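Supplementary notes for students who missed Thursday's class. We covered one full example, reproduced here. Read the sequence, then the structure, then the short commentary at the end.
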Amino acid sequence: MLEKLWPFGRNRVRKAFEEALEKAFKETGELLEPLSELQEHEDHYLLRVEVPGLGPENLEVRLEGDQLVVEGEKREEKRTKHLSEIVYGRIYRAYLLPKDAKKEGLEAKLHKGVLEVRIPREKRPPEPPVRIPVQEG
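Structure (token representation):
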């Protein structure tokens, strides 16, 4: 159907669309948000962030108040390419720490393109709900 409407064929449309997106991202300098997951364990949380192609020298993990920040950059090598589908640029993601997360003793490890940050948990009794009276007015 698409071939009937667009005489250049599906692959050329796809390529033109991808090139337009790539150009738009490069011109605006947008940051890439890495895919991630947060697992809850009894004594810690485990944050896993996909950062393929980045090494420890290209990554920074830091605490900013109640947020854990992961930042880095994957730089494009300058050479002749016949195909380029790899995404390059700066990554940035800030994660709000859970209330029972400790800010001391965090550990970050990089293994096969996945950054794992172990966040210890404090043992605290659950907080009871606080009732807020509703006033008429």
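Commentary. The two ends are 62 Å apart (CA to CA). The longest helix spans residues 10-28. If anything here is unclear, bring it to office hours.
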